[in-house]
Amino acid sequence: QVQLVESGGGLVQSGESLRLSCAASESTFEFLAMGWYRQAPGKQRELVAAISRESETTNYAATVKGRFTISRDNVKSTGYLQIDSLKPEDTAVYYCNAALLISTLDDSSNFRSWGQGTQVTVSS
User: Fold this and answer.
1) Is the pLDDT of residue 23 over 90?
2) Is the confidence at residue 67, as pLDDT, over 90?
3) What is the mean pLDDT of residues 90-101?
4) How many whole angstroms separate alpha carbon 110 and alpha carbon 62?
5) How far apart are the C-alpha atoms of 64 and 108, rounded to whole Å?
């Protein structure tokens, strides 16, 4: 199973931007769809964005559409999440995961293994 490591989080002010990275341990990453998730304190982990293996399809949660942009570089085996116009409600730990089918990403319970995530904290 490909290992994924998230990075790029931090403490920012409302309205600022961040770019998160998801680095894969294997080049097989290019054959997988990828998703970004977030989990706020006391809340369930939710899928915020997903991208197919060759970037032809991207999906976003309604709460982030227009502010989040998912992308990937298969040569670098890395996925990205550009987050603009950050809001305090975006505060959460952000995780990535990957699967053969983009539909598998819809349900986080399909995954037994998760990385350590990267913390995003937005102050008002």
Assistant:
1) yes
2) yes
3) 97
4) 21
5) 18
Q: Measure CA 16 to chain center.
A: 18
Map tokens 């598998």 to a residue: 104
CA distances from 84 to 14, 37, 65, 66, 124 (A): 10, 16, 11, 9, 15
Strand, coil or helix: 109: helix
**pLDDT over threshold 90, residue 1:** no
Pair type for strands 118-123 and 92-99: antiparallel
- Tell me the helix, strand and coil percentages in the chain, rounded to 5: 15, 45, 40
Q: Nearest-5° angle of CA 55, CA 113, CA 72?
A: 15
d(CA 9, CA 19): 8
Strands (E), the chain: 4-7, 10-13, 18-24, 33-39, 46-51, 58-60, 68-73, 78-83, 92-99, 118-123
Looking at the predicted structure, is the pLDDT value of residue 4 above 90?
yes
Provide CB contacts within 8 A for 84, sequence distance 6+.
17, 67, 68, 69
The token pair that represents 20 in the structure block: 């998160």
